[in-house]
Amino acid sequence: MKQNAEGRAALVRMRDVALAWGNGVTALDGLTLDVRAGEFLAILGPSGCGKSTALRLMAGLLAPTRGQVRRDGGLTAAGRVGFVFQDPTLTPWSRALANVRLPLDLAGVARAEANERAAAMLALVGLAGFERAWPHELSGGMRMRVSIARALATHPDLLLMDEPFAALDEFTRARLNDDLLALRDQLGFTVAFVTHSSWESVYLADRIVIMSARPGRVLDEIGVTAPPGRGAAFRASPAYASQCAAVLALAAAASGAVA
Ligand SMILES: Nc1ncnc2c1ncn2[C@@H]1O[C@H](COP(=O)(O)OP(=O)(O)OP(=O)(O)O)[C@@H](O)[C@H]1O
Description:
About 40% of the residues are buried. The longest helix is centred in the C-terminal third of the chain and has 18 residues, at about 170-185. The chain has 2 domains: about 1-80 and about 155-259, P-loop containing nucleotide triphosphate hydrolases (Rossmann fold, 3-Layer(aba) Sandwich), CATH 3.40.50; about 85-155, no CATH class. The chain is globular. By secondary structure, it is an alpha/beta fold. α2 (about 95-105) runs parallel beside α4. It is built from 8 helices and 9 strands. Adenosine-5'-triphosphate binds next to α1. One of its GO terms (molecular function) is ATP hydrolysis activity.
C-alpha cells in the first residue's frame, strides 16, 4: 500500500477521475480523492453530483472513463468491501438470519459456520433473538441493522454507505450513528459514507469532503475534531455546533444556495 501525505495508507486512490454515462451525462470530472485506511470519510455534495457513482467506482463496480482508480490489492478478494444503501434491500422471502448469511453463502462458507457467523453479526448490531424474523416484521431501523449486519458478515476492510440513514426518524438515526461508531471501533473497518446531512457528517466522520455540483469533483475538505466515542456530550457541545456550521456553509456554497 502507498502512504499518502498524512502517512496513512490509501485503500482507494482516485486521481483526476471522470465518469461519463452512455446517455452522455458526465457524472464526475476531475475527482481526486483517497480513502485512507482506518478513517471514517464522509462525502457531502449537491443532489446528482456523482456521490453514488464515486462509491461504485470505489467498489470496483464501475471503471472510470478517464483517470485512475487504484484499489488496494486486499480489496479485490470476495467480501473485502461491504455496501449499504438507503434502502436496506433485504430479500423479503428470507428471514433475517438468511439475509445476513447471503455474502457468506456466496463466499462458499459451510452452512453451520455461516449460520453461526450470521447470528453473531446480528447480535453485534443489536438484533439477537430476531434471527427468524421476516423483513416485514421489522421496523425501518431494524431492517437497516440487518442490512449493516449483512454488509459486515464477511468482516470487510472497507464499508461503503450510501445515505444509509436518510429514511429513518431522527432518534433512530442518532441511535444508529452511535451504534455504527461502536461497531467500527470494535471491528476496525474503514468507512466511506455519503450523506446530505452536515450534522451527521460531523458526528460520524474523521474527515469530510465536499463535492461540487455535477460533474462532481472535490471542492473542499475538513478534518473533524471530536473526543473519542463522541456521544451525547459531543452532540450538545459548542465545538460540534461550530463544525456543523462550517460544513453547512461549505455545502451550501457548493450547491449554490445561501447558507
Ligand atoms: N446508470 C446510470 N445511467 C445514466 N446516468 C446515470 C446513471 N446513474 C446515475 N446517473 C446520473 O449520474 C449523475 C450522478 O448520479 P449519482 O447517483 O452518482 O449522484 P448522487 O450525488 O449520488 O445523487 P443524490 O445525492 O441525488 O443521491 C446524475 O445526473 C444521474 O442522473
